[in-house]
Design a protein that fits this description.
Largest sheet: 6 strands, mixed
Number of strands: 13
Distance between the termini: 65 Å
Number of domains: 4
Oligomer: single chain
CATH superfamily of the largest domain: Tetratricopeptide repeat domain
Strand content: 5-15%
CATH class of the largest domain: Mainly Alpha
Radius of gyration: 25 Å
CATH architecture of the largest domain: Alpha Horseshoe
Shape: globular
CATH topology of the largest domain: Serine Threonine Protein Phosphatase 5, Tetratricopeptide repeat
Helix content: 40-55%
Length: about 525
């Protein structure tokens, strides 16, 4: 909570300012690139500048009590010093106290000021109902920025205000967990509550590109929630959805709407950012732009687009070795592309990248996704599930982590439990680019449970949605054969051989991560479909 309940909390020292609500560090008017966890560490030191902060204090408050190595701790302190022009040798601002801890020793001014005081661009003409307290237009940050405006209560019932406010606040919290995005804090966006602000003015006031707005209408025991995502700089409409629900458990409903909206927004924003970078040379792109462009290729999930994405991500890692998302996404792209067969496997390198990403930012869920995928393809189910759940702990709305948890459990023979995770992933993100993998995983679960007709249905959906994902073709062959549809299974096998000429029993044993029992059950169907050793 902000002191005094007013504007934004800002710490000023030397020529630097750290804006807590905007999560910005600036040197003069320039935005300083800083990893989220390094920002958290610096903020904690500033908040506790009157005392020495111990290692245990940092672990409890910055790492939320999770175990971290001394090397990780040291690297974050070094990065914090580097961000504010300090060094371990001079310790001008962050001083190490032998055997006790560290302390911020610079002169600090703390105030709750108005947004954007460091910006150089003047505000455009005021809207009819401008929000108070915004004096200048801040620059757009390097990564995609979004403000969630208070959802409008259209029920005509003031008592329903808490519900519309609760949805807005929960979406802000959920989006803040996504490491790619810069999310405006609740206190700033709720300054517009009860108004109909000019969207261009909001962009100018808050320094954001994207706006999410919505409404809540209650009638009897039914509620309708609408939401739409806008690129407020260009005026383009990116996404909208309407949710009609029974108003039974209000908190469960609030959680469901939050999950649906958050999981829908993430891929739409990433796609919009990728398109925005298409017209620019890669030489002109910053770290985030390179990752966004790469993802716009990767999520098309074809061999050609995957190779293009990996090439761009390699550039990002080479040019910005300290940027965690570049390392984690390159690791994930290499592992998925190697698993599908689009590129030669680079599992060792991918593992190094994933571990490096965790060292750079151990709050990056995609780093744990990559580590989980690495364990999964090595048939280490328990370790894979542990890493995927670590990703879910960081982002509970992470549909991909739910999906791969399900896949890992299914191919280990824990079919019913795995199918629950796959179904939850589908519920969280029904239009996800990864759904071709989900359908193949659901098909595998039904196959291993002996429900071959259901397996065929989901395998066909996987093949239709993503023809280049070979797992769908493989499980279709096996399912058709086990269902007694031998001729159709042979046709499906001929298609698979065209897509994957090297397919054999030996290849499957080496590269498809079924564990022992499920592997034999799967190969039984593949042999019936005509696959040879």
């Amino acid at each position: 909570m902000l002191p005094g309940g007013g504007g934004e909390l800002i710490y000023r020292f030397e020529d630097f300012s750290l804006n807590v609500d905007r999560r910005e560090l600036r040197h003069g008017d320039d935005l300083v690139a800083i990893e989220p966890q390094v920002f958290d560490l610096l903020q904690y030191l500033l908040q506790n500048r009157e005392r020495v902060v111990s290692k245990d204090d940092l672990i409890e408050h910055v790492w939320n009590g999770r175990n971290v190595s001394d090397s990780t701790l040291t690297s974050r302190i070094t990065a914090a010093r580097h961000a504010i022009g300090d060094t371990g040798e001079y310790q001008r601002l962050i001083r190490t106290i032998a055997r006790k801890g560290i302390r911020f020793v610079g002169d600090v001014q703390e105030n709750s000021g108005s947004a954007g005081v460091h910006a150089a661009t003047p505000v455009s003409a005021p809207a009819a109902n401008p929000a108070p307290g915004f004096a200048a237009a801040p620059k757009l940050p390097d990564k995609p920025s979004i403000a969630v405006l208070p959802f409008t209560n259209m029920s005509g019932d003031p008592e329903q205000e808490y519900f519309s406010d609760g949805i807005s606040e929960d979406i802000i919290t959920a989006l803040s967990r996504l490491r790619w995005f810069f999310v405006i804090a609740r206190n700033s966006t709720f300054a517009y509550k009860g108004q109909a602000p000019n969207l261009k003015q909001v962009v100018s006031d808050l320094g954001v590109r994207y706006l999410l707005e919505g409404s809540v209408r209650k009638s009897g025991q039914r509620v309708r929630v609408t939401a739409q995502l806008l690129d407020a700089v260009t005026g383009n409409h990116i996404w909208s959805e309407r949710y009609d629900r029974d108003l039974t458990d209000i908190f469960a409903l609030q959680d469901e709407i939050t999950t649906r909206v958050t999981t829908a927004i993430e891929p739409k924003l990433l796609a919009a950012e990728g398109l925005r970078s298409e017209t620019r040379s890669t030489d002109d792109l910053n770290a985030w732009d390179l990752v966004a462009r790469a993802l716009s290729h990767f999520w098309k999930l074809t061999a050609t687009e995957s190779r293009a994405a990996i090439a761009i991500l390699r550039q990002a890692v080479e040019r910005y070795p300290g940027y965690a998302p570049a390392s984690s996404m390159l690791a994930f792209a290499l592992l998925v592309s190697g698993f599908v067969g689009w590129i030669p496997g680079e599992r060792k390198f991918a593992g190094q990248l994933a571990r490096r990403a965790v060292e750079l930012d151990d709050n990056d869920p995609w780093a744990y996704m990559a580590l989980g995928f690495l364990a999964w393809v090595d048939r280490q189910t328990n370790e894979a599930v542990r890493q995927f759940r670590a990703a879910l702990d960081l982002n509970p709305n992470f549909a991909a982590a739910q999906a791969w948890t399900g896949w890992a459990l299914v191919v280990d023979g824990q079919t019913e439990q795995g199918l629950k995770h796959l179904d939850e992933a589908m519920r969280m993100s029904p239009r996800d680019p990864l759904n071709g993998f989900l359908y193949a995983g659901i098909a595998a679960g039904h196959y291993l449970a002996g429900r071959y007709d259901e397996a065929i249905n989901y395998a066909r959906q996987a093949v239709q949605l993503r023809p280049g994902i070979l797992g769908g073709h493989r499980i279709l062959c096996a399912s058709l054969a086990q269902a007694g549809q031998i001729e159709e299974a042979k046709v499906a096998m001929a298609t698979l051989r065209q897509l994957h000429p090297d397919i054999s029993v030996a290849w499957i044993r080496q590269y498809v991560p079924y564990t022992a029992g499920p592997m034999e059950q799967f190969l039984e169907g593949m042999r019936k479909a005509g696959l040879t050793d």
